[in-house]
């Protein structure tokens, strides 16, 4: 929708033809049902908030504790894909914490054992596909946002680097499809200068995104329908792809 508006702008008429195709997603099911996915199947619909920050998203011990306090206070069920920050993100990806009890608040795992899980890597698309997921705290990578919209899951924006801040702004301010933790984020993960978010910041956003009848949830559900319709016969994506093929054929030099 946003891209269609972009390409139709009168100031872009001199540019080459653009063909808005998508959303393009890799949602192949490998048939494996992990313990995490089985746990999600046992949870009520839209009751679990999922926290996942991509392959490069890792946090300091201090930020990890603040996030844990937020989850504890919120009272919501949660699935948290937790990675430790890399000492040099340019040469070494984030890894798992050696002992979670050393970095999480005292008693956190015991207090939340009945309603939450802390894991390492997560099969993100498979998790978002589960009916139990009611909200997604994300770094706002492009694939993550597309997957969240495809499955109709409202987002909490927590951008870490690169274009993610722009993506977050678009989701919150322009499209109304996400909840912000803060309007403006300072720092950049790649530069090793991440801004600390307090437990109060994170808890407030989690409570907002998990509201059952919020305007954000309604708009995300509506957008999910548009995403699916775009890929159907007669949808905007298939129509654009057919137009692209036709234009290529017509412009072939024989």
TrEMBL record:
MF (Gene Ontology): UDP-glucosyltransferase activity
Keywords: Glycosyltransferase, Transferase
PROSITE patterns assigned: UDPGT (PS00375)
Pfam families, sorted: UDPGT
Domain of life: Eukaryota
Coiled-coil stretches noted in the UniProt entry, renumbered to this chain: none
Keyword Transferase among UniProt keywords: yes
Gene3D superfamilies: Glycogen Phosphorylase B
Family stated for the protein in its record: Belongs to the UDP-glycosyltransferase family.
Protein name: Uncharacterized protein
Organism of derivation: Microthlaspi erraticum
């Amino acid at each position: 929708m946003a891209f269609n508006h972009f390409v139709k702008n009168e100031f872009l008429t001199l540019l080459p033809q653009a063909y808005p195709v998508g959303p393009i997603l890799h949602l192949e099911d490998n048939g494996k049902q992990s313990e995490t996915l089985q746990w999600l199947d046992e949870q009520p619909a839209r009751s679990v908030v999922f926290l996942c920050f991509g392959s490069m998203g890792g946090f300091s011990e201090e930020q990890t504790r603040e996030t844990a306090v937020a989850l504890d206070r919120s009272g919501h069920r949660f699935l948290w894909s937790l990675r430790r920050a890399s000492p040099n993100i340019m040469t070494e990806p984030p890894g798992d914490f050696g002992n979670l009890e050393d970095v999480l608040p005292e008693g956190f795992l015991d207090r939340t054992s009945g309603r939450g899980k802390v894991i390492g890597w997560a099969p993100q698309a498979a998790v978002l596909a589960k009916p139990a997921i009611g909200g997604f705290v994300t770094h706002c990578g492009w694939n993550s946002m597309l997957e969240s919209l495809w499955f109709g899951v409202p987002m909490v924006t927590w951008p870490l680097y690169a274009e993610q801040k722009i993506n977050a702004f678009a989701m919150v301010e322009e499209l109304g499809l996400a909840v912000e933790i803060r309007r403006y984020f300072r720092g950049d993960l790649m530069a090793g200068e991440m801004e600390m978010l307090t437990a109060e910041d994170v808890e407030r956003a989690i409570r907002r995104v998990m509201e059952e009848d919020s305007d954000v949830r309604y708009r995300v559900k509506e957008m999910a329908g548009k995403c699916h319709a775009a890929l159907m016969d007669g949808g905007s994506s298939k129509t654009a792809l057919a137009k692209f093929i036709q234009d290529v054929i017509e412009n072939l030099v024989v």
